[in-house]
Amino acid sequence: MDRRHFLKHSAAAIAGPLSAPSSSLLAQSAGPAAADARVAILLIDTERTIGSIDKRIYGHFLEEINHSAVDGLYAEQIRGCGFEGKDFETYWQPFSERGAVEHVDIDFRNGKKSVRLKCEGGRAGIRQGRIYLAAGQVYDGSIFIRREAGSARFRLRAVDSKGAPIASVPLAPAGSDWQELPFSFSSSVTDAQASVELVAEGTGTLLVDYFSMMRADARRNGMLRPDLLEALRDLAPPFIRWPGGSFASTYKWKDGIGPHVSRRYTPNVFWGGYSDYYGFGTDEFLSLCRKLGSEPLIVLPAPGTGPDQLQYAMDWVRYLNDPPTTEWGKVRAANGHSEPYGVRYFQIDNEPMNNGFTPERYAEIVNVYGSRLRELAPGARIVACGQKRSNDMIWSQKIIDLAGKNFDVLGVHNYEYEPLGFETGLRRIGNYLSKLRDYIRASAHPRIEIGVLEWNLSRTYDWRAGLHAAGNLILYEQLSPGLSMSCPALLMRNTTDDPTWTSFIYHDHVSWFPGSAYLVEKLFRAHYAERYLASSSGTFRDIPDRKAFFDEIATMKPEDWRPGSVDAIATRSADGRRIVIKAVNYEGRRNILYVRLQGRSAMENATGRLYTISAGLTDSASLDHPKAIVPISRELNYSKEFSLDLEPYTVAVITFQEA
User: Fold this and answer.
1) Among residues 440, 466, 581, 634, which is most buried (max CB within 10 A)?
2) CA 219 to CA 24: how far, in whole Å?
3) φ, ψ (nearest 5 deg) of residue 564
4) In the prediction, which pLDDT does 271 show?
5) From CA 30, how far away is CA 68, in angstroms rounded?
6) If 0-12 CB within 10 Å is exposed, 13-18 middle and 19+ buried, where does residue 560 land?
7) Are the C-beta atoms of 241 and 59 separated by less than 8 Å?
8) How far is residue 28's CA from residue 22's CA, in Å, rounded to a whole number?
């Protein structure tokens, strides 16, 4: 498909009817209906509100998976910075002339490995490539060095992809103890494949360990990569769930606090075994949440009910929320955060069935951890794990019945695994969530809310994922307030990793591009409105006099209803001055959305705007073409009754703001 022709055609098709006055619209629709035209009907009674919509359905989930933080959001540019495990052979290239480079067993802080550079009148060094340097940017960091013998000189060098020098910074260790030597340099060129070198010259022996380097502005701003931070900011997540996922079950939070050089090396065994020095830990995550204005949802490890296991999780709660006069409050204050973080959301582990737990065993864990959380954080909202697949009611029902008094939100996971199920999967998921909501209402714990804490079209990031995201978010708005939270997965991943699991944000070490679902979630979040007014699902055969759809709604016979074609929802802001209509056309044919606003509180005068995203089903962005799919917007005239042409595979948002 020629996408430019497609979008031009889409814009033209939409431009006509919405720009016309209401009377003209009705006159246009009074003639013979097109033979293949189908209509979705959305009647909006502005006097009545069906329910309230919680903004937390636009939350997000950040897991350390596929280099989402390491070699991603966390701005550290040196891979294998502490030389532990297989880092030296994986990321570093040794070189020497009348010298030698050794990877040696020497304890340093919490590490067991260092690099020895030996010079015998020559030089010895190590080099790491694939370093992105941008012209005009300052890079800083530090290296830990210990002189063992002689007087060899030491320097850090940056060279471009052709070997030409960019910077050379001499570093002079004194004495024979480990020292941290800071450095800083400015790059005069932009090169995505530059290298950094640590070089000893002359005669002598040096030990080198923990080498950190990143952009100076990123280091000052929470050690977060600026472009990826901005990508997250554009999503405006009300909350962020962290650290997992599967990663949460074995996450050792105590290894990820304090000075970075002293954090413990822990290969990511769940997602490929790649290097991780826990640089992005608790305090970095909380800093991210504050920058984004997001509530943190901490997923506590809960491998069992043993006293030590419970204590480890509760110590984390104390570190986060205790005053600075307590044991863990003092530790937090020593790490630069004297005031309590005041975290209000805690989840008791993740997908416990993966660890072999039965629902009865997990309910026991929830009762132990949940009751203790009620004591330590009495104002907190506690999340328990519901089912992992939307074809299992038994797990969720048992957790509700056996442990319902000790949690507030049941967090379920609802992935669609087949790309062709981008629409049909929504019906399966919606059916499950409706049954779960009804079960909770009839249970002994009707106050429990539902959270869909992992969802996505998980095997593709093309435009089918965007259509699926639109349908999901419309469904979650319809199910509010009983469904109060949601967050898709994955949030971000490196393009070099296993492509099995798809994501919202794709990055390499230089730039990023959006998955299709990112574009839809960003658009829908930007136009969130709190009050649910009306919704529509499916299309009918068109008729010559469309007014009859509304004027004779109580008596007319709807003909040829087709599910899985169009979903739409109308919402209103709390102040009543803004109405938002969201719609998605799942079909490869044009459908029509016919809308009427009625009631005394319907706006008389308003300014309007239309946003659309259209693409072919398998269209997608890439690093080379990050804007292959983009939203289009334009002004439109307000009318209480209008029709909107929804071109094939289109997501649309209409906003009316009272004048």
Assistant:
1) 466
2) 59
3) 75, 20
4) 85
5) 54
6) exposed
7) yes
8) 10
Residue tagged 């919490």 (tokens): 110
Q: Look at the chain and count its residues.
A: 659
Q: Residue 545 corresponds to which tokens in the numbers above?
A: 């006099």
How many CB atoms lie under 10 A from the CB of residue 148? 14
Structure tokens at 504: 């919202």
Task: Name the DSSP letter for residue 575.
Answer: T
Are 462 and 1 in contact by the 8 Å Cβ rule? The answer is no
Q: What is the pLDDT of residues 222-236, one digit of tens each?
A: 999 999 999 999 999
Q: 143, 198 in Cβ contact below 8 A?
A: yes
pLDDT at 655: 98
403 Cβ contact partners less than 8 Å away, ≥ 6 residues apart: 363, 364, 366, 367, 370, 384
Residue 153, C-beta contacts closer than 8 angstroms, at least 6 positions apart: 170, 172, 200, 201, 202
Residue type, 350: N
Q: How far apart, in Å, are the Cα atoms of 401 and each of 74, 368, 394, 500, 567?
A: 41, 15, 11, 36, 34
Q: 483 preceded by cis ω (within 30°)?
A: no
- CB-CB neighbours of 616 under 10 Å: 17
- What type of residue is 1? M
CA 591 – CA 35 distance, rounded (Å): 12
pLDDT digits (tens, 9 = 90+) for 489-547: 999 999 998 778 899 999 999 999 999 999 999 999 999 999 999 999 999 999 888 88
Q: What is the DSSP string of 105-163?
A: EEEETTEEEEEEEEEEEEEEEEEEEEEEE-TT-EEEEEEEEEEEEE--EEEEEEE-TTS
- Identify the three-state secondary structure at position 351: coil
Cα–Cα distance measured from residue 252 to residue 196, given in angstroms and rounded to the nearest whole number: 31
Measure Cα distances from 48 to 475, 482, 570 in Å.
19, 19, 12
* Residue 522 near residue 102 (C-beta atoms within 8 A): no
What pairs with residue 450 in β-bridges?
Answer: 410, 483
What pLDDT score does 554 carry? 82
Contacts of 322 (CB under 8 A, 6+ apart): 328, 329, 332, 340
- Average pLDDT per consecutive 10 residues, the chain (659 residues; last block may be shorter): 35 37 33 66 96 97 94 98 96 98 96 97 98 98 97 97 97 94 98 98 98 97 97 98 91 97 91 92 98 98 97 98 97 97 98 94 98 96 94 94 98 96 96 96 98 96 98 97 96 90 95 98 98 97 89 84 96 97 97 96 95 98 97 96 96 97
CA distances from 210 to 88, 111, 142, 252, 554 (A): 12, 9, 8, 20, 73
Structure tokens at 292: 């984004």
